[in-house]
From TrEMBL:
Transmembrane segments: none
Residues covered by the Glycosyltransferase subfamily 4-like N-terminal domain: 25-223
Pfam families (UniProt xref): Glyco_trans_1_4, Glyco_transf_4
InterPro entries the UniProt entry points to: Glyco_trans_4-like_N (IPR028098)
The protein, known as: Glycosyltransferase family 4 protein
Keywords: Transferase
SUPFAM superfamilies for this protein: UDP-Glycosyltransferase/glycogen phosphorylase
Organism from which the protein derives: Gemmata algarum
């Protein structure tokens, strides 16, 4: 297949690699840039130093960038709540309306006029709206793909199930209905919709009318994440990793600190929890500081030392979708994993062979105690999971799959719907 011109629409330049989404996006694009002309069009990174480092990393990877001088609005402060209230009047979900800027749509429109784009790639579902705003009636003749890191409606459905405040639950249900309408359009209208798991792909077909849905799973750099056999693990130390500015991770971290850790320490007093992640909110910092046996490390440059020292990774998620890169990274290093069923969703791993899985968040206490008491059997589980990860989840293999999605999209007929 000839070298394609690929235009990627995204929130910001995904670098440094401090979140699962950034890790996935950068690793796949960097591996495909030698084969195709890849250009990323996005908003600027809010942090200036981060923005400069990101631009350098993308230049080194051979990826062109078009960055508009607008940052996505913050999810905190009075302005955030004013925007949430204003979104009541919009037919679009909040995440879609705040990410669809006129500046980025205009940049995409200008790029389309100047370049012969073979495939537009929306690197998160809300950016399908940016493409719709940019191309207008021309969208039907374009070849474009949409990357669903999560089926967003599934996450909002789980928010609604766990929200305790009636007003918050009412607002969440409105967002859920908006996302259901939006995803029904995006997955059906795209030339190809890309899911990260077979479960998400089935949902996109059955509930959202996805006509052509392909799976490109999450992966791990197996050369970077390797076992450190010379480092001694800390008994009864559980590690939580994740972007702490993402609400499902915040909910999971709160569950760990307020319920799981205290219950475990009641039976194993020396048990500890280490939380590692970017951009933790102040309330989470305070909660970790006030919780006996807990410590929080924000915005660390390298998570591997934490993976090497802990006894196991804990994934107490009860809200979420897609699949968890943190589990793949842990297993690649030979670190055992204890997860809820939701946390392990979307990964082709077998419970009790490759990792320990609790059916409910409440069951995480018993699963955690079982892991602490498992001894060498726990490490045997991690080794089984590591072999599975090496065979299935390398970025090189997954880049081949995304390459096939793009090259196949070029050959597909245009969509005639609206």
């Amino acid at each position: 297949m000839r070298r394609l011109n690929i235009a990627v629409l995204d929130e910001e330049l995904p670098f440094p690699l401090t979140s699962g989404k950034r890790i996935r996006t950068f690793n796949l694009l960097a591996r495909l840039a030698p084969r195709h002309n890849v250009t990323v069009l996005c908003h600027r990174n809010p942090d200036r130093d981060e923005a400069l480092a990101a631009e350098e990393a993308f230049r080194d990877a051979g990826i062109e960038t078009v960055v508009v001088d607008r940052a996505v609005p913050s999810k905190s402060g009075p302005g955030f709540y004013a925007r949430l209230a204003g979104n009541l009047l919009s037919p679009l979900p909040y995440s879609v309306s705040t990410h669809t800027s006129p500046a980025l749509a205009e940049a995409a429109r200008a790029f389309d006029a100047e370049r012969d784009v073979d495939v537009w790639h929306c690197e998160w579902t809300p950016y399908a709206q940016v493409l719709r705003a940019a191309l207008g009636p021309k969208l039907g003749a374009a070849r474009w793909t949409v990357m669903a890191h999560n089926v967003e409606s599934l996450i909002w459905r789980r928010y609604a199930e766990t929200a305790e405040n009636p007003m918050k639950r009412w607002y969440i249900r409105r967002q859920l209905r908006k996302f259901e309408r939006f995803e029904r359009w995006a997955y059906a209208a795209a030339t190809t919709a890309v899911a990260v798991s077979r479960e998400d792909a089935a949902l996109m077909r059955a509930e959202f009318g996805g006509r052509r849905v392909r799976v490109v799973e999450n992966g791990v750099d197996v050369a970077y994440f390797r076992p450190q056999r010379d480092v001694e693990r800390t008994p009864a130390q559980m590690l939580f990793m994740g972007s702490l500015d993402w609400r499902p991770n915040q909910d999971a971290a709160a569950q760990l600190l307020t319920h799981i850790l205290p219950a475990v320490r009641a039976e194993v007093p020396h048990a500890t929890a280490v939380l590692v992640g970017r951009r933790p909110p102040e309330w989470l910092r305070a909660l970790a500081a006030d919780t006996p046996g807990a410590e929080l490390h924000a915005d660390v440059p390298d998570v591997r030392p934490f993976l090497a020292r802990c006894e196991f990774l804990t994934v107490p998620l009860r809200i979420g979708g897609g699949s968890r890169l943190k589990i793949l990274e842990a297993l690649a290093t030979g670190t055992p994993v204890v997860s809820t069923r939701v946390g392990a969703e979307g990964l082709e791993l077998e419970p009790n062979r490759d990792l320990l899985v609790a059916e409910t968040p409440e069951g995480m206490v018993n699963a955690t105690l079982a892991a602490i008491r498992a001894g060498d059997q726990l490490q045997d589980t991690a080794e089984s999971g590591r072999q599975r990860v090496l065979a299935r989840y390398s970025w090189e293999l997954l880049a081949e799959r995304l390459d096939d999605v793009w090259t196949s999209a070029v050959r597909q007929p245009a969509y005639v719907g609206s």
